[in-house]
Amino acid sequence: MRKEFSKYVKNAYDIVCHAANGIGPRLPGGANEKQFADYMEEKMKGIGLKTRKEPFAVYPRASIGGIPFIGWISVGVSLMMYPARLWPFLWFPIAFFVILSWAWIISSVFLYHTWFDRLFRQKKSQNVYGELLPEDGKYDYTVILSGHTDTSWNWKHSERTYYNRKNNIWRGIIPIYIKVGFSAACYIVASVISLFMTMLYSGFFSWCKPVFQSRFFYPFSLVMLVLPVITALGSVFLIQWNDPKEEVASPGAMDDATGVALAYTVAEYYRDHPEKKPKNCRIVTLCTGSEEAGLRGSMAFAKEHRGEEILQNAWNINIDAIADDGYFEVVIKDDWQFTRFDKDLEQMFKDTFKELNIENVKGRPAIHNPVGGCDSTPMTRAGIKSVTFAAQNPVLTYYYHTFRDRPERFTPETVGKGFEVILGVIDKIGKFQEEHGYNGVNH
After folding, report:
1. How many other C-beta atoms lie within 10 A of the C-beta of residue 4?
2. pTM of the predicted model, to two decimals?
């Protein structure tokens, strides 16, 4: 790492330590999330950035945070099967509730839509950003550096792999997949049986009556004496997915105090060295809230500024977890969100990795999110060229979304590599602008 960067890397690591150890867990819409946002706003003001805070409503348990509710729904549906055998009319409200829950799961938990948000408890979150303008105040394009201030609920199943970290971590991870997979299967089985029984008793289909008279229905009735107990007990693993208590939530050193800290210190570096900043470039440090609640902060930012110049001719480097040396990657797609990020930025990151001799232990400089999503999705949909930059082991580790995500686990040097990568990419954005101007999102 170059000597001139050491001050800024130390500042970044100090911010990470303050966020994780000084403030602690910062659940979406919580007081600690706001405290960190206020802290970063004061930091940005301290280096002369023009800041703005934008509050927005959030429903933290409406998306990923509501996964335990799926387990409770499965338990309730399973236990209601017994009285429904005595009073068949109960199958109809059970089926309605199952269909409603599936609509919520697919739209909110998987796809991050906000359609069901208002069925959950409301809280207030906020985005905070600061602008660093050229000395003459004139700019042709904007580079937005973003990270999220909130942290995740503690994932109990992941945390329990901690004691396997020095041996074979797969001995802890494989049972997690088995338990969660079995629990999800229990919910699916309970849902399918409820819908099947509702169709039978409705008599709407021509095949319903023969089913009651078939030789298979009696054995099925015997199985139904035991199966609801199995699906109810199996659903407990989903209930335990994340712990709602803030005191055991993730302190978010890696995910994502590192992103927030680097977004700030890059702006601080350009403030101190304006000759290093690309010509006519505006730098925006954006601290989004409630990313763990389904990208709500970046969604709110894109909605708030739709049609405004801050989103025009804009590039977004979303920084999300820079801690695991040997896993430097650029995230290029969110599969569940059906969003492919910008190919120009992707190539810039790959070229920068090569220039800095940064190698991924798996030999893959670019990956995609097979589940969930990141803040690049709302930005890309808003017409911004965006990718997400990460240095995180993609295996379901003991520190991902658990109370073990602490700064003592990784080194300032890894954060420093991330700092150098971002500066290298911004240089390439400047050269691209001079040669091509802005050509829109390149998928």
Report:
1. 11
2. 0.92
